[in-house]
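User: I'll paste a sequence; please echo it back and then give the predicted structure.

Assistant: Echoing your sequence first, then the prediction.
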Amino acid sequence: MKRSLILGSATALLSALALIACSSTPTQRSAGETVDDSVLTGKVKTALVDNDVVKAGEVNVDTYKGVVQLNGTVDTEAEKAAATKAAKSVTGVKEVRNNIQIKSTKVAADRSAGQVIDDATITASVKTKLIEDEITKAHQINVDTRSGVVQLGGFVDSAAAKNRAGELARSASGVKDVQNELEIKSK
């Protein structure tokens, strides 16, 4: 009798600890939420690839607790709207936040190979600064550069991380402007 009571108590304690370990905190997702968000991200990317209007390679997708954030640069307003519609069509998506920028036709047509390389260099420099910084978590931040304008997207843990990422991006050589579209993880 005493043995079964101890065994039952131990089982209850271990179950409670397992539930606590798997629960989410205001800025951290549980294991289940992480998997759910990864699945949603994959489904949204697939919906973008399947869409005839959207150039899926131009759109970054981030998901946090069912909220999808779209970042990147596309050619037209119709492509931006189609990306939103495609993301909203995915079952399980709670909200879509579309931060996609429209390319200027003149700038897009006039971009030389050198400008493309300059933008890639700026992106690499910003990513390196994010990786080296103790406040920012580089894996949470997408960096896209077009004609010297850096767009930061994704979900970060705090306002300090968002602000620091913007500061680091502005400090990179060749940056003309920073569009800080980072969102602070909801509580």
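Residues 2-22 form the longest helix (21 residues). The chain has two domains: 31-102, 106-184.
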